[in-house]
Amino acid sequence: MTPYEKAFRGKNVLITGGLGFIGSNLSIRLVDVGANVLLVDSLIPEYGGHLFNIENIKNKVRVNISDVRDEHSMRYLVQGQDYLFNLAGQTSHLDSMEDPYTDLEINAKAQLYILEACRRYNPSIKLVFASTRQIYGKPEYLPVDEKHPLRPVDVNGINKMAGERYHLLYNDVYGIRSCVLRLTNTYGPRMRVKDARQTFLGIWIRLLVEGKPFEVWEGDQLRDFTYVDDVVDALMMTATSPDADGQIFNLGGEASIRLKDLAALLVELNGGGHYQVRSFPPERKRIDIGDYYADFGQIRSVLGWHPKVSLRQGLAQTLSFYREHLEHYQ
Amino acid sequence: MTPYEKAFRGKNVLITGGLGFIGSNLSIRLVDVGANVLLVDSLIPEYGGHLFNIENIKNKVRVNISDVRDEHSMRYLVQGQDYLFNLAGQTSHLDSMEDPYTDLEINAKAQLYILEACRRYNPSIKLVFASTRQIYGKPEYLPVDEKHPLRPVDVNGINKMAGERYHLLYNDVYGIRSCVLRLTNTYGPRMRVKDARQTFLGIWIRLLVEGKPFEVWEGDQLRDFTYVDDVVDALMMTATSPDADGQIFNLGGEASIRLKDLAALLVELNGGGHYQVRSFPPERKRIDIGDYYADFGQIRSVLGWHPKVSLRQGLAQTLSFYREHLEHYQ
Predict the structure, then answer these.
(1) Is ipTM beyond 0.95?
(2) How far is B132 from chain A (nearest CA, A)?
(3) What CATH number is attached to the domain comprising B38?
């Protein structure tokens, strides 16, 4: 067991969005290393929460169904916690454009509820906030480091930007220790595959496992991908390191890949499958960011994090998971 | 009359925060050049709106008392307007820390109401949004240009950052023409002098005119100041120039000045007065940004704007206004 895993033994850990993709993978690891885990999730059908995600640990964690927009429940739930992994969020770019208010309530206002609750009732808690590469907008240079200007191309990116700034502000002004991780495309078992609300890759995997063709839009865009176990490492390392307090860190992948090459790799790993390369639908084109891949040198140098799972290995494990469990995710 | 003034003749202009400091000065100019002016203001006592501000033009403008958080009234009011100067906002840094939710509702959520109303009911409107230097946080270099990283030191700065980004997003994605001005310390007749909610300078001026001593905190900080007539020029120039669409421009002053020198200049112009230099109260020290002055080269090169009123002249006019009208502003 690594030092950052040992640090969680016997600790009280709250995870918002705990039944979601990343939250559930994190909770499985935390249970394994001996933490007392409390999961908060709204189980809104369009979001990532899913009870099957914690099927293997359901008797070893506590689950509290509530919404981060419920100021009163958050006020109670943060009390007595050593760590808070703040992963709940609205993640769909298109949903944020169609209903900007709901996105604002979840990604900005509810973050203030959580931080105010910590400030008043548990100021010694340590928070890690899951932000997104989406806030950079269309890259001005590659790879994108943390100093890259922020010019979000959707309402979601703007509200996530506010959400991460609140965390840094409460760190700086009130000493509520917080760290921000800017995630790129995260993939792995328990990712949402029902639709493209979290990432297009989810729907590709589902259709592939179902034996149906999937669509690749354009295909020449470069993207980077982080396997969920590597994200879990980063979350636990930042939570337990004082060097991370008040910091922003990009996550990234070992190498960037063009989407058409990703599609081909998936088909190869699946032992067959079909896809069509198509041009962007107009509502998607408007918010396309072109190529993106992150410079994660900062978290590598400060905390020693780097992605350990290759894309080939991670995708194979993901396909294997959905071949076995797809019925629960449709 | 300048070309940008002529452009407003016979045009319909909506000003949110229209009874406030900048809104009222803008409306006086707009009436003068022949625009049809509609002012929206909530008249919340802690904010800048004040009916005496439009005493001289009260029969030449329409006034609609409502709050930008009133989604329904905004939906109606934007219709038929050629220009919208979006000046309403919560401006107090300390209030934003004590009640972050109200600041969020006004400076972020209500901005979405306004933009959605424009998108649905008047997509050919042109907007100018009043943002603030506060979003830069503590300067990393001086003078601060528009590329300076954004690291707000209070909730107000974070929400204003979201508010300006919404405007740019609606410009880029939906073609709702918008421009953002980042104001520094604006001063002049009709500024709030009752307390320090807009700027410390307001309360200095009131106490000086009342013959009472005022307090200077620290005193060595460099700041820049823009006289309100120069801000009105910038608002009208950006509104009428297609080159400003989707742009962010800093405003600034002719020169920066240390606060203790500003205090001495005020006393000189007033022909007497007293002040004490004191150290920061702790709650203020936490969010102090040190020296700040803006690089306004961008709006100078794109639109030809530059400050025309010297600090000496502007302060003299401001003192003169409050010597005559202080009874209305106490």
Answers:
(1) no
(2) 16
(3) 3.40.50.720
**Hey, is the C-beta of A325 within 8 angstroms of any chain B C-beta?**
no
Q: Spell out which residues of chain B touch residue A166, defining contact as CB-CB under 8 Å.
A: 100, 155, 158
- Identify all chain B residues contacting A116, using CB atoms and an 8 Å cutoff: 100
pLDDT at residue B47, as a whole number: 77
Strands B83-86 and B126-132: parallel
Q: Looking at chain B from residue 199 to 258, which residues have their Cβ under 8 Å from any Cβ of chain A? A: none
d(CA A240, CA A238) in angstroms, rounded, equals: 5
B20 touches chain A (CB under 8 A): no
B152–A169: do the CB atoms touch at under 8 Å?
yes
Whether chain B has a CB inside 8 Å of the CB on A180: the answer is no
**Model confidence pLDDT, tens digit, residues A159-205:** 999 999 999 999 999 999 999 999 999 999 999 998 877 788 999 99
Helical H segments across A175-199, by residue range: none
Q: Which of A93, A173, A280, A289 to mutate to test the interface with B (most CBs of B within 10 A)?
A: A173
Establish if A286 touches chain B: CB-CB under 8 angstroms.
Answer: yes
Within 8 A by CB and 6+ apart from A288, the residues are A138, A153, A218, A221, A280
The answer to whether residue B168 sits within a structural domain is yes
A154 and B CB contact within 8 Å: yes
8 A C-beta contact, residue B260 and residue B216: yes
Q: Is residue B281 part of a domain?
A: no
Which pLDDT belongs to residue A135? 94
Over residues A10-53, the pLDDT tens digits come to: 999 999 999 999 999 999 999 999 999 999 998 888 877 889 99
Number of domains in chain A: 1
CB spacing of A155 vs B112 below 8 angstroms:
yes
Instruction: Judge: A165–B153 Cβ closer than 8 Å, yes or no.
Output: no
Enclosing domain of residue A236: 3-189+225-253+294-309
- Give a yes or no: residue B205 inside a domain: no
Residue A31 is assigned to a structural domain of this protein? yes
| A170 and B CB contact within 8 Å | no
pLDDT tens readout for residues B235-258: 999 999 999 999 999 999 988 999
| pTM for the structure as a whole | 0.93
| Secondary structure element (H or E) that encloses residue A45, with its range | none
CA distance A25 to A53: 8
Torsion angle in degrees (nearest 10) through CA of B118, B152, A176, A64: 10
CA–CA dist B9, B7 (Å, integer)? 6
pLDDT of residue A248: 98
